[in-house]
Amino acid sequence: MNRTTLLISILSIVCITLFFSCRSVKQTPVVVEEERPPQWVQQYPIDQQYFIGIASAPITPGSAQHFSQARDAALAEIASSITVQIVSESESRIREDNYLFSHTFEERISSFAKQDLEGYELVDSWEGDHHYWVYYRLSKDLYRRQIEERIRIASNLSADLINKSESEIETNKHAQAIRYNLQAYSNISDFIGYGIEANINDENVFLENHIWGMTQDMMRSLRIEFIPSNATGRFLQGLNDQVKIKVLSQYSRSSANRPVPEMPLLLSFERGQGQLVEKVVTGPDGTANLSLSRISSPFRSQIIVAMPDIDAIAGGLGEEPAVADLIDNINLPEARLDIELESVVFCIDYVDRGKYNELIKDASNGRIRSSLSEKGFEFTTQTGKCNYILKFDANLRRGTVIQNIHTAFSDATVLFISDKGVELLSFSVSNVSGADLSFEKAKQKAVQNAVDNLMKRIDNELF
């Protein structure tokens, strides 16, 4: 055996030996420790210099929603911390003095805080246990500086509007003055409950309270009156005489009881019903005409109320929650017009329909009386004692017979006629059906159904 062959044999033996010795060694698996959650997940951190928000969201494979969900929840927690601090500070300082400190102000602060967070920072994040965790914070000093600057701008704008309001009130433009006040309140609406203080006319005041008090004083100074304060009218007609509404002001320092022009007024029936123009505006002399074209309720005593139309004055501002709170807390002045209605007593007259007269009368009379009596109508069978006529007209025709069920149809009309024979109002229905086992009963049902339909129309259109 030569030298080369010997070396190859030796190497082969060594390799075989190494192979089998490696197979005989027991392999130990590598243990990978699971990453432990950071300290801020296990124990909520406390830092007096920051508002802190920590939140998690479940991880859904193939989706990235957990990033935004966790962030939004953390920022909501920061906003909640801000709300708690503001509420605590505000309650201790202004609850007793703040006229408008309502249960909704905490909701407004919370909503504002959520919408207007700026300058927050992501401190850390962690994935584990099938959840994604985030740690956000916001510097309290930074947030305070941001809010103080926004309050400064808002309060300056409000102060300018208050000055405009005082100028307008001196020129007797009440509606515009009140509108400026509502605009001033709108400017600080995000900060209602913060207890904003301002210097107005060399006096340190809570700005929101000053606006409310000033607006309330403007309203209290108004005097609304009807001229005359009592009126007479006729049913289904209007008032016997013209009535005016006058608005006077006692607010001005220069003179009291000045007529107030351009004041929107809202009119409504407190008792009664009619075609009333509900919105009017006073002219240069501080008056507006009452327009009541028809009194549709027969009640002898009726009342119309007039007050400032605060919604017209506020315009779109009234839709803002804070301004709506202010408006709800304002006591509006009002005036009442007493209307005495002339006697309303009806006789029912039936149009002659020959052989159907008794059927029509029997089918309709009780229904008409009971329905209209509920509305305040009075009826009599003595023609000398009634001053209104309710004329009822109906005609009938046969329909078909199907499986022994007879049908009939009725057209009907109700006319309201004055004591002078003038037709004031009428209502009609047509092709109203009735069905029963005989034509006579079907016709009776058709008349009854026609009366019911007429009463519904009268109820909907007259009342």
What can you see in these coordinates?
- The chain is 39% helix and 30% strand.
- By secondary structure, it is α+β, with helices and mostly antiparallel strands.
- The chain folds into 4 domains: 40-142, Acetamidase/Formamidase-like domains (Endonuclease I-creI), CATH 3.10.28; 144-219, Methane Monooxygenase Hydroxylase, Chain G, domain 1 (Up-down Bundle); 222-308 and 332-341, Immunoglobulins (Immunoglobulin-like), CATH 2.60.40; 345-462, Putative neuraminyllactose-binding hemagglutinin homolog like domain (Double Stranded RNA Binding Domain, 2-Layer Sandwich).
- The longest helix is centred in the middle third of the chain and has 31 residues, at 140-170.
- It is flat and about 100 Å long.
- Mean pLDDT is 86; it is low at 24-28.
Which structural traits does this protein have?
463 residues, alpha+beta, Endonuclease I-creI, Methane Monooxygenase Hydroxylase, Chain G, domain 1, Immunoglobulin-like, five-stranded mixed sheet, 21 strands, 39% helix, 30% strand
